[in-house]
Amino acid sequence: MSTPVKKVPIHLQSSQNRLLIKNGKIVNEDNIIEDDVFVEDGIIKEIGRNLIIPGGTRVIDARGKYVFPGGIDPHTHFEFEFMGTTSVDDFYQGTKAAIAGGTTMIIDFAFPKQGESILDAYYSYREKADSKVCCDYGLHVALTSWSDQVKQDMSILCSHHGVNSFKTFMAYTFMLNDSELYSVFDHCKNIGAIPQVHAENGPEGHEMSRPEEVEAEAVNRACTIAHQVDSPLYVVHVMSKSAGLAIKQARERDVRMIGETLVAGIACDGSHYRNPCFSHLAAHILSPPIRPDNTTPQYLMNFLAQNVLQVTGSDNCTFNKSQKEMGMKDFSKIPNGVNGVEDRMSVIWEKGVHSGIIDPMRFVAITSTNAAKIFNIFPRKGCIAVGSDADIVIWNPNKTRVISAKTHHQAVDYNIFEGMECHGVPEYVIVSGRVCVDEEQLRAVQGHGRFVETPVYPAYVYDPEKLAHVRAAKNGTLNEVELSNKLAKIELEPKVYNLPTLPNSAVSTPSCRGPRPEGQRNIQESTFSVSEELDVERKSCIRVKNPPGGKSSGFW
């Protein structure tokens, strides 16, 4: 009697398929080349011309199109319980929509419930997501309190569970005070993790109006604490000019800052909050809010072009109109959150590349590569290279689409980008070697995605040699002269390349990266200041009792 043949799941069958992408323009953060890409077993196996490939390989002709690494959205909230309700995009619906828009990996937030440990929150989110995700995903973990147990669990998550980032809050009832932020940042530095901060000013400032000065003050205060600890800092959802300028000034002082803005901030302004229709107004409520100054979106796009900000997320946290109506009589009870995971890539292309502010290479950097580097999954993700995961987008810059809730793939019943025409469409999206968008037709598979571990000490923000010498100096084994001679700066400035001239058929609006704005400082020309970087006993004693920025009053 013969042994029955074991059926291989469809997603595993698909990942073993061979695929050849021909005649496209491969775009990475640092170059554009015309080559073919051969994919096998979910991995990019060869790049070049006249490749010898096995028979039966599917061929996609990408002539006149761009071949991008799949987008990475570092900020989503699927199945998130918040303000008495739950976001409607679950891990299946949300990741399916992400793929439709050209995003092939998301990083969500494991958020502990009242009385739940951060370890249990991590396990809970893994259980929610693992069987549902259509694309790969990772997890940040939110810190809603501080204790020795939280500190211990952070170390366990980093060493055993593939988490390298922790989000803190300077607003809401679960905000941390300055002393606790100091402790979190310091522990993150010691374990090689990335502290993230939701920067708004405390309960007394977390109100309906939320002026941008509140956001800027919190950013400035968080920057000061991070600089004193000598920790990197990732500021989530930068939504205002003032907050962006605070990050720019901190980076000029050599604070290791990472700034993330949202597609909502790039495409919308606060005029929506004056709409007489409650449903329209409520649909645009998020925190921090989109700003009333209608020049803010272009400022944020310019900050991305200049590398003041490095990444774009969606902060996708969707609630239907009926859920938003919970705040009909009390504005503060409107569940905060908007859509964006599906439309992020198209909107950034429209507002950035098509408008002439950035080139396709910078587009790849801010939608994929920088996130991969920051969370230490590059070059597995974030580039088209031999050995990288076959997460690929074939982008047609000549096609257009109009965004609408009637045609999007998300569960939510509105779209804040309703009616926006976007030049540039993901014609094919390949996820781990499987064609999940085929000639604009979505064919995503539930459970096809995997959890991707994010290792500690990403080189993008932690320079190994620098850390070794700082520790040696603190232990008294290296003198200050040796330290100042040996410390290496971390390169955070974007590389500038000459963009090849493309035929009209390949790109709808030519654009290139402009020169550095006058007056912008090159941090590579700065010299390291030992007095700023080395801890001393006197300062340490003062900081522990009363961290920089004060406990609540801030600078203004």
Automatic annotation (TrEMBL):
Enzyme Commission code(s) on record: 3.5.2.2
Catalytic activity: 5,6-dihydrouracil + H2O = 3-(carbamoylamino)propanoate + H(+)
N6-carboxylysine: residues bearing it: 167
Pfam family, one: Amidohydro_1
Keywords, sorted A to Z: Hydrolase, Metal-binding, Zinc
Needed co-factor(s): Zn(2+)
Tagged with keyword Zinc: yes
Modification note: Carbamylation allows a single lysine to coordinate two divalent metal cations.
SUBUNIT field: Homotetramer.
GO terms under cellular component: cytosol
GO biological process, one term: pyrimidine nucleobase catabolic process
Source organism superkingdom: Eukaryota
EC top class named in words: hydrolase
Amidohydrolase-related domain residues: 66-435
Entry GO MF terms: dihydropyrimidinase activity; metal ion binding
CDD domains reported for this sequence: D-HYD
Signal peptide boundaries: none
Name assigned to this protein: dihydropyrimidinase
InterPro entries, per the entry: Amidohydro-rel, Hydantoinase/dihydroPyrase, Metal-dep_hydrolase_composite, Metal_Hydrolase, Metallo-dep_Hydrolases_sf
Protein family membership: Belongs to the metallo-dependent hydrolases superfamily. Hydantoinase/dihydropyrimidinase family.
